[in-house]
Amino acid sequence: MAFNDARDNYFWLHSNSMQILTGQPTCRLKNGTMGTKIKTHKGTKKRFRLTATGKAMHRQSGTSHLANGLSKKRRRNLRGTTAVDPCMEKTIHAALNGNSY
Fold first, then answer.
1. pLDDT of 56-77, one tens digit each?
2. CA 36, CA 17: separation in Å to the nearest integer?
3. Reduced to 3 states, what is the DSSP secondary structure of residue 67?
4. What radius of gyration, in Å, describes the C-alpha atoms of the chain?
5. Within its chain, how far is the Cα of 1 from the centroid?
6. 25 phi and psi, to 5 degrees?
7. By the 8 A CB rule, do 37 and 29 touch?
8. Closest CA to 101 of 43, 61, 26, 60
9. Do 93 and 54 touch, CB atoms closer than 8 A?
10. Among 32, 61, 75, 80, whose CB has the most other CB atoms within 10 angstroms?
11. Would the pLDDT of 16 be above 60?
């Protein structure tokens, strides 16, 4: 692998140096250069799970308090998790980087 200058060679040998200089965690890309790691969005991580087939699942809203005004059937149907609308799945996948937590 050819290096263009001494700086690239230095970062190749000392991968943590890039993190020290930029303040961002780094990873090695396929072409051998250093890049910034993509961080998982923590709020999305807490609210969504990905299934084995790639669907995003979430907990339904409206059950935490003041549920007395709802019918028993409505409260029962709000239990558990449901799949996210397909138009939002791409955004959730990007925020989670394809990882399920």
1. 999 999 988 988 999 999 999 9
2. 13
3. helix
4. 22
5. 32
6. -65, 145
7. no
8. 43
9. yes
10. 75
11. no
